[in-house]
Amino acid sequence: MLEQRIQQNFIESADLKYQAAETLSKPIAQGVQAVLACVTSGGKVLACGNGGSAADAQHFSAEFVGRFERERPELAAIALTTDSSILTAIANDYDYNRIFSKQVRALGQSGDVLLAISTSGNSANVLAAIEAAHEREMTVIALTGRGGGKMGAVLRETDVHICVPHERTARIQEVHILALHCICDGVDAQLLGEQDNPA
Ligand SMILES: O=C(CO)[C@@H](O)[C@H](O)[C@H](O)[C@H](O)COP(=O)(O)O
Ligand SMILES: [Zn+2]
C-alpha cells in the first residue's frame, strides 16, 4: 500500500542518517576546515554535479553567498551548473564531459575548493572537473556514495571524501544535502561562535 511504501522511505532515510552520523562526522568536519581555510584566505568554492546533485551545488552556493541561518559576511561560491550559454557552448563545441572542467580551468586558482557531487562517483564530467582542480592546485571535497566509484580512486590525501554508505541514489542525495547543511552550520559556528541557531 502506498502509505506503507512512503513510511518505508522515511524509515530507510532516517536509519541511514543515524548510521552515517558516526562515519561521516569526521570527513564532514574536514570539509568545514577545508572551506574555512579557503574562504578566509580569499579563495572560493566551485560546485558541480548532475541532476539532483546540480541542484545541491546551487543550494550550497546560495547558502554560502547569501546566508545559511545567521547573518554573516558573504562567502564566495559559484555553482558551475547555472550558465546555460557556457554549458551549451562547451557541450556543443567539445563534449558534455568537459562542461565543468573547462570552467574549473577558467575560474579555479590555487587555494580554491572544488565541491564535486556524484552519488555514483562515476560521472565523467565531475571526474574531469576533479582532474582540472588538481591541475589548479585546488582542494577537492567529494560527496559520493556506493563506495565512491571512480572519484574515490582519483582523490588525493589532501582532499576530503564524504562517501555515503548506501546504494540508492535518492537516499545518498538525502544525506548529501544534510552534509552540505552541516558544512554551512560548521562554517557559521567557526566564524560566529557556537551560539544556538535560530529556529
Ligand atoms: O536526482 C536524481 C535522482 O534522485 C537524478 O536527477 C540524478 O541526479 C541524475 O540521474 C544524475 O545524472 C546522477 O548522477 P550521479 O549522481 O551518478 O553523478
Ligand atoms: Zn533526486
TrEMBL record:
Q: Which residues form the SIS domain?
A: 35-197
Spell out the PROSITE patterns in the cross-references. SIS (PS51464)
Q: What protein am I looking at? A: Phosphoheptose isomerase
Q: Name one GO biological process term.
A: carbohydrate derivative metabolic process
What does the sequence similarity comment in the record state about its family? Belongs to the SIS family. GmhA subfamily.
- The record lists the organism as Ramlibacter monticola
Tell me its cofactors.
Zn(2+)
**Protein's pathway:** Carbohydrate biosynthesis; D-glycero-D-manno-heptose 7-phosphate biosynthesis; D-glycero-alpha-D-manno-heptose 7-phosphate and D-glycero-beta-D-manno-heptose 7-phosphate from sedoheptulose 7-phosphate: step 1/1
Q: Which Pfam families match?
A: SIS_2 (PF13580)
UniProt xrefs under HAMAP family: GmhA
Does the keyword section mention Zinc?
A: yes
Listed GO molecular functions? carbohydrate derivative binding; D-sedoheptulose 7-phosphate isomerase activity; zinc ion binding
Miscellaneous field = The reaction produces a racemic mixture of D-glycero-alpha-D-manno-heptose 7-phosphate and D-glycero-beta-D-manno-heptose 7-phosphate.
Q: Which reaction does it catalyse?
A: 2 D-sedoheptulose 7-phosphate = D-glycero-alpha-D-manno-heptose 7-phosphate + D-glycero-beta-D-manno-heptose 7-phosphate
